Amino acid sequence: MGMSASRRRCPHLAGAFVCLILAGMTWWGTAVAGALEEALPGLADRAFPVKQQAVQALAATGDGRALPILEALLAGDLYTRETADPPVVLARPSAAGLRLTHPLTGADLGDVERGAVKKIPLNNALRTALRGGIATLTLSSPDPVVRSRSAKDLMRDPSPESVTALRARLEQEEDAAVRTTLVLAVAVADLRVGTPQARLEAVSTLEGSLHPEARNGLTTLIANETDADVKAAAERALIAIDDRLTWNARAETLFFGLSLGSVLVLAAIGLAITFGVMGVINMAHGELMMLGAYTTYLVQQALPGWVDYSLFVAIPAAFIVSGLFGIAIERTVIRFLYGRPLETLLATFGISLILQQLVRTTISAQNVAVENPSWMSGSLQINPALALTYNRLYILAFALLVFVALLLILKRTALGLQVRAVSQNRAMARAMGVRSARVDALTFGLGAGIAGVAGVALSQLTNVGPNMGQAYIIDSFMVVVFGGVGNLWGTLIGGMTLGVANKFMEPWAGAVLAKILVLVFIILFIQKRPRGLFPQRGRAADG
Amino acid sequence: MRKRDLIKRLVLGSGLALGLSAVFPATAADDTIKVGVLHSLSGTMAISETTLKDTVLMLVEEQNKKGGLLGKKLEAVVVDPASNWPLFAEKARELIAKDKVAAVFGCWTSVSRKSVLPVFEELNGLLFYPVQYEGEESSKNVFYTGAAPNQQAIPAVDYLMNDLGVKRWVLAGTDYVYPRTTNKILEAYLKQKGVAAEDIMINYTPFGHSDWQSIVSDIKKFGAAGKKTAVVSTINGDANVPFYKELGNQGVSAEDIPVVAFSVGEEELSGIDTKPLVGHLAAWNYFMSVDTPENAAFIKQWHAFIKDPKRVTNDPMEAHKIGFDLWVKAVEKAGSTATDKVVKAIVGLETPNLTGGIAKMLPNHHITKPVLIGEIQDDGQFAVVWQTEGTVPGDAWSDFLPGSKDLEGDWTAPINCGNYNTKTKTCLGSAAK
């Protein structure tokens, strides 16, 4: 156990170099017999370079038992302990704290309390080494998906050993998809180390490939190439790649714009009901969204371990919570203030401060952590250069869904008919037997509930904190006014237009200026068309 | 349409928030020494500043347990400037003129410090400022216990350049004075190190920016040019969360393009899901994970005071602890709380910091600090991957900006000047009266 001794001798980073040599010598001395057993304790060392050495040694053994150890280390399941042997153990959460198992034999080592063992910390260099090591070990895995991923990992940072491994694999690979990746990976490596002939072939293999590594490799090649033919070919290949990338970039920007637009639409659509249909200037609209986001948080707290499904509970819950708050606000404050917009504005502003403080005192002044379900993380890879993030895709779809649902409620249900009747001509509606007070409360509740649902979506994108609503209130009013007060279609088109315009301006104007330009554009637009994109028509609307 | 006019008023309405700040009245007794606490307890900065208020209260309580100062009890006077910069100046005036506090511990953003600076200079008060800042300032009345750029930004860039081999740089920041000045210094520094202009990308975003899609996509493209790329982030506060989330979702990992942040600490990480952040870096002068007996004692004291074992400690808290210790030592040395005596006594005083070193008050009113680079772990803590040998003295005026290279701050006799030009041997601003 030479290395466990060196672990104790290396308390500080300063001694890392000495430890490195020590650890290296220990490993060298006993490389063949029990290489795995010898390399393992190095993982328990405090110095990162020693750990990295141990990882490389483990990977180099080619021993099947090394793979689960490296994977556990990357996943954060590998712990060290001071006293007993072995110093490195696998730990999984259990009822008593942590259940330890022997990393090599898999023998059960019993339960310990949390804190009795220490998780092995990682750094980026170590993570890169781990991924490389795992990729080398899994390159001949029976699963083609794993093989393909390993080839991609090795392509990112090719070393002479990995190139040999890739070539050897290519000889015997039968799966077509994996072959394609392997050919690319070998070509990328050839750009660096191959003969002029091999480089030229690699360039033609990579022509038109959208893999970032291909472009990286070509750029480096052009900078260092001495052979004129290869250089010219590489330049041609690069231009072809850049051509394709431009189109991808445009598609990407359009998606970004639509996704920003969908957030604007979600934030504004509740307001389109309360402000647009009822004419209430509701400054607490942002806080109703905030309540929806906090409902998501509370639902996640109540259902630990159900993160992937909690959103389906959170959406109706947020609708009910914010809706009830909305009805309460309407019944206790707003109904006394109809027709007095300035007072409504001040009163609802006060309510917004009360709601913020309520959350601050009952939950926390700090932001709270809302977790993303796994199906909303990551991105949909259209091609190697174009990926659409799942959370944005789902929220785009969700915004459209909410829009359609709201449209159906307003156009197809009895409540919707009454809402439209009251908003167009209150006196006439009352004369026809519509209980306008009840309709007002329900309409406001509906708008508030939709705001709550928007809050659920926002909790997946941004911070959940007491102030989060304020960031969206101005944007929401902007969208509703731009789209045309009282028109849901206006809100949809308005929000999407503003989102796309913002994103197309951002690359050359910067985020700050793009926002200002959009605001200036809206001000000018409102001067020209005071009623927005889709003005509401009718006698009552003229009043 | 009348509704349309009202939109304008919505904006004006937010001004009302000013009037709604809570004031904690001070009940004065004659035999106490008063300590002002000027941290926002409401508004956007409450997230970060509330903790600092609690830290000062804890330090005051501890000092009183030790028997107070000069035989008197300490009394904390807490006011709430509500994240409103002009209100900071008003509250500072109230603390010095009305409550007659001996010293003030406060401010977070640079703009709030700039707002109170004339008040402290006019009324000759004392301010201990605990947050990392952009430098280019040295006042007789302010003690800068946070990091100057040479104690945070420059060492972080050195680490990226020398240890990680970074060749291309993205300087991303929130659009206000601290990021703009820091990035100006960094740009000058990088160019001096031979980095070409096309290898530097500078990007500013508004406060609380939440839609990072195109910026992250730009960073990704910028990083796909065959050279190792890193992001130096002066993005402030909670705008960081959606930024890191977007990096994770677009598949940018810390191994490809590491982000080193100057405003993300344990407190900021405690409110978020840290999975997408693992491996990204932060540069500070203190981390909660630092393993020293001083730090363990401080964390224990904090948990006992706040009655919540889950609360974290962070860099500005350590700065307040150091500032408070130095102030207590200076008052004891001077035998008085009078500003001029304390200012004279404090320079050169030393106190242990929490990372095993010594913090010394320098003539330019900055202190010596170690610089630590940490990588974010999945439990929201930092693993230290690099640190300076010994401490770095804080430099008020950057050596990398043409306008301030020759300036230095020295508040000891005979210079007594915050912006002394070492070439012309003149004090460009006003010397101490």
Protein architecture, described:
- The complex is a heterodimer of chains A (543) and B (433).
- Chain A has 543 residues and is mostly helical.
- Chain A contains 22 helices and seven strands.
- Chain A has helices at residues 2-8, 16-29, 35-39, 48-61, 66-75, 124-138, 144-156, 160-172, 176-193, 196-206, 212-224, 228-277, 285-302, 307-332, 341-362, 390-412, 414-424, 426-431, 436-459, 470-483, 488-528, 539-542, and strands at 78-80, 88-94, 97-101, 108-112, 118-119, 379-383, 386-389.
- In chain B, strand 9, helix 9 (266-269) and strand 10 form a beta-alpha-beta unit.
- In chain B, helix 2 runs parallel beside helix 11, helix 3 runs parallel beside helix 4 (110-123) and helix 11 crosses helix 12.
- Chain B starts with a helix and ends in a 6-residue tail after the last strand.
Sheet of most strands of chain B: 7 strands, mixed
Show unreliable segments of chain A: 1-11, 18-33, 539-543
Could you tell me the strand content of chain B as a percent range?
Answer: 15-25%
CATH architecture of the largest domain in chain A: Orthogonal Bundle
Strand order of the largest sheet of chain B: 7-6-8-9-10-14-15
Percentage of residues assigned to helices of chain B: 25-40%
Please give the largest β-sheet of chain A: 5 strands, antiparallel
The tally of strands of chain A reads 7
Helix percent band of chain A: 55-70%
- What's the total helix number of chain A? 22
**Series of H and E elements of chain A:** HHHHHEEEEEHHHHHHHHHHEEHHHHHHH
Number of separate domains of chain A = 3
What's the helix count of chain B? 12
CATH topology of the largest domain in chain A: ABC transporter involved in vitamin B12 uptake, BtuC
Q: What is the CA-atom radius of gyration of chain B, in angstroms?
A: 22 Å
